[in-house]
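Aim 2, interim progress: modelling of the coenzyme A-bound target.
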Amino acid sequence: MSSARPESSRVSGSSAAPGAVVRVAEPADLDFVYEAERQAGYEWLVGQWPRDEHVAALAHADTRYLIASRPGGAPAGFVILQPLSDVHEGTKLKRVVVVEPDQGFGQAMLRATFDWVFDNTPSARLWLDVFTHNDRARHAYRRVGMREDGLLRQSYRMPDGSRADRVIMSLLRSEWPPP
Ligand SMILES: CC(C)(COP(=O)(O)OP(=O)(O)OC[C@H]1O[C@@H](n2cnc3c(N)ncnc32)[C@H](O)[C@@H]1OP(=O)(O)O)[C@@H](O)C(=O)NCCC(=O)NCCS
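Predicted structure of the complex, ligand included:
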C-alpha cells in the first residue's frame, strides 16, 4: 500500500529529557554514527549501512538523524527517523543505538526523541520494529511507554543467513507524555 509523505513541517532544533539531549545531526556526525552501529555484537541487533547509504539518507528530506548526548557531553547515541512523518504511520525509529548500553542512557535518549518528534512533526504516532531476541531493547521500549502492536514472523535475514522474527512497537501522540 502506498503512503503519503512527508507530513513534516518544523524539523529542526533540539529536545532534552532528564539525562539526555538530542539534536539534529550534520554530515560531520556520520563518522560517529558509522562507528556506533558497528560495536561488537551489534550486527545481531541493528542494521549497519555503508557510509554512502548514510550520506544519502542524511540528505533525504524525509529522514532525520538525531544525535544524543548527556547534557554537556559528547555524542553517546543516535536515532534515525525514517520516514520522518508519514501521514498514516507517523514517524519510524529506523535505528536506535547507544554506545555504552545498560547505563540508563537509552531510556533517556528515547524520551528526548519522543519529545523531539511530537514537538517537531505532526505525527500521530511513532513506531519501530525490534528483533524478538533483543530482550534488552524490548524492555527499554516498554519502560518508556511503547506497546507491542504485532509480530513480523521470520521477517529479517541475519548476517549468518538465518531468519529472525521482529515485533512492531508503537507510541501514540495521545500517550505522550505519560500521565
Ligand atoms: C537498545 C538500547 C538502545 C537501549 O539503551 P540502553 O542504554 O542499553 O538502555 P537502558 O540502560 O536505559 O535500559 C535497559 C533496560 O533493559 C534491561 N535489560 C538489560 N539487559 C536485559 C535483558 N537481557 N533482558 C531484559 N532486560 C534487560 C535493563 O535492566 C534496563 O531496564 P531497567 O531500567 O528496568 O533496569 C541499547 O542497549 C543499544 O544500543 N543496544 C544495541 C543496539 C540495539 O539493540 N538497538 C535497538 C534495535 S531495535
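The chain is about 25% helix and 30% strand. The pocket of coenzyme A is lined by residues 42, 45-46, 96-98, 101-107, 128, 130, 134-137, 139-140, 143 (CB under 6 Å).
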